[in-house]
Amino acid sequence: MKTKFVLFSSFALLLVEPVSTSAQLPPEARKGMWHAQWITAPNAPQRDTAVLHFRKIFELSQVPAHFAVRVSADNRFILSLNQHEVGRGPALSDLAHWKYESYDLASFLHSGRNELTATVWSFGTLSQLPQISDRTAFVLAAEDETQRIVDTDATWERERS
Known about the structure:
By secondary structure, this protein is α+β, with helices and mostly antiparallel strands. Helices cover 14% and strands 34% of the residues. The strands form two sheets. It has a five-stranded antiparallel β-sheet with strand order 4-3-6-1-8, with no helix packed on it.
């Protein structure tokens, strides 16, 4: 009975308050302040349970004093840089108030080759968790335009577990 109520309530909320996919981004992102794209793995289920892996290899001639990024996923992520865990997130939310985490990657960087990875998992759109989902995806955006080499786009490697 409780499961039917949760499913019915979730469906009713979707009918009452239609939300575009851009609602996944925070307000500053919808105003064009983020240049990164939400990415997913080829042939990954959009709204079913899934685990995805993302990887970006990039080179730096020198380590900057700060390398701030904003990160989010639908539903959850673990972010690592050069095999060191940077963080996890995002906080639980809904489509109209999407959350992201901010990290300074500078202490994990080194001159030369760097490997940024993320594992993303989704419990599906009909999960009973207090997380309203749209589709399995990942986004990472550098705050400094000179560091946009790490922004999520088609250059990221992606695969499904």
